[in-house]
Amino acid sequence: MFIKMTWDKIALFFLQLSWTVQHVTAIHRHDIYPYGMFYGDVTLQEGDDETSEVTTLTKPMYFYETSFTNLYVATNGIISTQDLPMEKQYVDDGFPTDFPVIAPFLADIDTSKGKGSIFYRQTESPTVLKRAEADVKRGFPDATFTPTHAFIATWENVSAYEEVTRSSSPSSRINTFQVVLAYNEKDTYALFLYPEDGLQFFGTRPKESYNVEIELPARVGFTRGELSFLFFSRTEGPYYSVTSNEQSVKNLYQKGNIGEPGVWLFHIGNRYSFQNVIPAQHETVLTKAPPVLDAVFPDEDYTETDEEEYDRIDPDFQDPSTTEFLEPEQDSSLLERLNQEVPLGHNLSLFPLSPAVIHYSTDNKETCERFQQQCSQNAHCTDYSTGFCCHCSSGFYGNGRHCLPNGAPHRVNGKVRGTVLVGGTAVQLDRINLHAYIVVGDGRAYTAISEVPEPVGWALMPMAPIGGLFGWLFALELPNSLNGFSITGAEFTRHADVTFYPGNQRLSIIQTAMGLDNQNYLNVDTHLQGSVPFIPPGATVQIEPFKDTYHYYPSLITSTSVREFTVVSAENGAETHTFQVKQNITYRDCNHGPRSELETQELRMERIFVMYVKEERILRYAITNKIGPLGEPEDVNPCYSGNHDCDTTAQCVPAEGQLFLCQCATGYRGDGRNCYDVDECAEGLSSCGAHSYCMNLPGSHRCQCESGFEFGFDGRTCQGKIHLHFLCLDSTQLYQTSLCFVVRADVDECRDQPCHTHALCSNSPGSFQCQCRPGYHGDGFLCRPKTQCEQHRDSLQSGNGGVPLIGAFIPQCDEEGQYRPQQCHGSTDSSYCWCVDQNGREVPGTRSHDAVKPACIPTVAPPTMHPLPRPDVTPPPTGTSLLYAQGQQIGVLPLNGTQMDKQRSSVLLALHGSIVVGIDYDCRERKVYWSDLAGRTISRASLEPGSEPEIIINTALTSPEGLAIDAARRRLFWVDSTSDKIETANLDGSDRRVLFDTDLVNPRAIVVDSRTGTLYWTDWNREAPKIESSSVDGQNRRVLVQDGIGLPNALTYDSTTRQVCWADAGTKRLECISPNGTGRRVVHSDLSYPFSMVAFANHYYYTDWRRDGVIALSRDKQSTDEHLPDQRSHLYGTTYTLFILYYKVLVMYVSFCLIHFPCIFIYIYIYIYIYIYIKINQTFG
């Protein structure tokens, strides 16, 4: 048995045994419930026989089976539900009393002349209530009890009544004890607490028998008092005694019944049926720590699984997987306790080793000098009297162990697994992917879970709490508040129990955060288990905004909320359901430094969108989150409302009133409204030392050790790998001294071929490394051929011995290895950005030397997700709708008047493998037209159900962007930003010809006024931006605007005012001008990053690249609304449609057709329209 156990394990086992001390002590005074004037307590008047004024409870409390609303506190160690008689009627009598009593220590107590104090209060403090709930759970594990109110009474340093004579001196014995009554509308529990050294006298002498040397033991327990019997008589009610003699009184602090000496718990009342008091049954006895603990070896043979028993943990931090308050484990075996009692990081001297006698000595205090490697590289370490804590550096937030740059967006990756029962069908989720993207600057969290099968995809739509975790973690912080990541960091466990009503289905959600990966992204594992209500396929789910109150304790955060959701389906119409969410979040809390004063915070969840895309099998949640103190803030600065125009990689800093500043996040540069990543590696700003290399990350960087090296004790310095093994002599003689030596040994892991087929394996002492072969990219375990961008980047990085020259430009590649469409380069002297094509070549006229980044559009579509949805049309609803391009799809946003009906937003057409940029609508044939930058095509599709796309132009296109329909002349116009042309063709693609191919640098938007036959377009050439016009046949070309513009991305024709309007991402203004060049005016001056725009009625609607949504602005300069699609990505072109369906019989077009560039054509004379409309109404009633 012992031969199998290696000597290093035996040594560690002995050391662990020597450290294991099962020392159970009574509760300390500072650990009883908080009390005193500071906490709002009332102090009872000094005296020998005093009774408090009545305390009227805010909610009734059940004592036994009766409801009471009044409580009285008496000097003599009792609480009653009625005013007390004089003490001589009860203090020297036996137990029970004839009136209701809760007696933690009934005796003749005296507080006169400053001999102690008595405090009491009723409270609804979340801290008190949650602690009481946890204490009840310890004593009654099966009870479901959540207190809503509590009453606390504390007798502090009180004395026994004494009759002092000349021959005697006052006694110095004093007692301290406490009672806590926790209750809700149904149950009441009582806690009696007797701290260590809190009971120094155990009874008092009767006043009338003072010449007799007797002492009455204190009476502890509960009595209902006398009850009415028949009509005129009374009988003794039920009672319960805890003590009977002096020894039983001493047991009050020597024992306990919930696992801790000095703490006693009783169930004392119930609304429905209650016979008598029920005590908790987890008895604990006070013990002393033995000076020596004999070592006992386990009887079992040592196996590999035993290694888990010896994993070290940091004793300064609680186990993040704990779901309840920590408590002593009386029945735990010695080995089970080892894991919790081995301090981390003690220096062990194991050579030579004597297994019979082990001498261990170390300074138990852990300091920054020895353990600062546990802090983030973006944190500093601080020593305190009992240990150290990590604190994030300026410009970063987190718990010190994990820190992220302020204001920078964040990503979360993970897996989802488990079994979910839907309507009797069990659906297995086998580690499917979860991805989340959070815009920290305004608290928007987007979560997508892929490969979700039916029917669980529909059924999980209400489960926004799955993605709600990320909203809480990175919520927008209101004043005097902290989001979740600032408290927990990147290691925690969240348990959420969801109960649905009225069906009582229950779903358990366990989400475990496992730190930050090598890209600084959070890794979270999600486990789902239970049942959820069935939701019909094709249904939609609507969740209204709501608030949730979070309660904070050391290492624990809890909340309970009830939420409503509405299911809208063709089968059942609109149905409203509710579910309750009870959750706790456990994490590692450093208990050495200053404690946070947080008790409660309110999480406000707004703009909640949920969607299941059947064709893609993707479940999406989108929530906007803010966290702050309870209650509504009075003055909301734009930083807190999210209505600022700071970059998504910037922090909004509130100033006085409605003013604010935009400050680029740490690791980014710019003016705050436009920021770009700083490559610390290329600019020589990294902190990497010898034998390490730098990896740039968004907003930060990471140092990696070279092959054959690993981080040393400080977590920052790379040193050669050393693996130690023990070689012992006479090791079979367990109880005789043996001599052990340290020897170096190594296993060649490369023999097992652990690397990818296109990777090389390099063995090193104690480890190995996989490296992709030349021409391949990856981590060595997965390799793919390098793309052009990766080859370009790596050649520059390796040109100087693997270290790029300081100040040299290194191209940035995306996750798929393609050139990022926007490339930036900066140094301490200058910085600038420009656009590149798919081959990395700079697009002329795009270089920006100011803080405004150019609006670069990708030319390579993102990777295709399978299975692909059918590329057919789902028509928009009846009425007016906005259409917007969003990468690989065209979205629909219905309008109710001019208000956006966000709940009915949908996808008109899914176009995987495309990058849809320009979009317009032909109101005569009800067809939508769009340009595809990835496919280099122009296509169209009818808005009839099931219609499929039709490519009309697929040759000689390079970068087709804006396009426009002339409904009167049946012509199509578009711009090509690479070939620098403006072309036109018939709507079927025939009769194609070039209108302009000179004096164009970066043409983008184009509109047509069909009434006058005039074209307008923008050219955002960074050197000389302009807006031009001409006739539709290419005549009369002229510059309309060239002064005071920067990035005129968006252009529209406002048919109401008959002006040309543009939105500028450089000047942040929306301006309009008459076609003759007069009447220029600023409509709005605080835009964010507009890309495309359309005018309708008295509103402008534009797509915004910072908000990644559709923004509505009224003509009176007020921002009215915004729509943030659940799937986060840039939005491009926008237009709108209007078609009216009367009684599903007749489709009619009114006197004008509303498209991207409104045109007025009389398709049906207005009087005919009115006549037919009247006839239809007469026919159908």
Gist?
With 1181 residues, this protein is mainly beta. It is 8% helix and 40% strand. It is elongated and about 120 Å long.
How is the topology of this model organized?
Elements: H1 7-19, E1 42-43, E2 55-63, E3 66-74, E4 78-80, E5 101-106, E6 109-110, E7 117-123, H2 126-139, E8 149-160, E9 175-183, E10 187-193, E11 203-204, E12 216-217, E13 219-223, E14 226-229, E15 233-236, E16 239-241, H3 246-254, E17 255-256, E18 263-270, E19 278-279, E20 284-285, H4 334-341, H5 368-371, E21 379-383, E22 388-392, E23 396-398, E24 403-405, E25 410-422, E26 425-439, E27 444-449, H6 456-459, H7 465-473, E28 476-477, H8 484-488, E29 491-501, E30 506-516, E31 522-532, E32 540-542, E33 546-553, E34 556-569, E35 573-587, E36 600-613, E37 618-628, H9 638-641, E38 650-654, E39 660-664, E40 668-670, E41 675-677, E42 692-697, E43 700-705, E44 709-711, E45 718-720, E46 724-729, E47 739-744, E48 759-764, E49 767-772, E50 776-778, E51 783-785, H10 788-797, E52 822-826, E53 831-835, E54 879-886, E55 889-896, E56 899-900, E57 906-910, E58 916-922, E59 927-932, E60 937-942, E61 950-953, E62 960-966, E63 971-976, E64 981-986, E65 993-996, E66 1003-1009, E67 1014-1019, E68 1026-1031, E69 1038-1041, E70 1048-1054, ...
Parallel strand pairs: 25-31, 28-37
Antiparallel strand pairs: 1-7, 2-3, 3-4, 5-13, 6-8, 7-8, 8-9, 9-10, 10-18, 11-12, 13-16, 14-15, 17-20, 18-19, 21-22, 23-24, 25-26, 26-27, 27-37, 29-30, 29-35, 30-31, 32-34, 33-34, 33-36, 34-35, 36-37, 38-39, 40-41, 42-43, 44-45, 46-47, 48-49, 50-51, 52-53, 54-55, 54-78, 55-56, 55-57, 58-59, ...
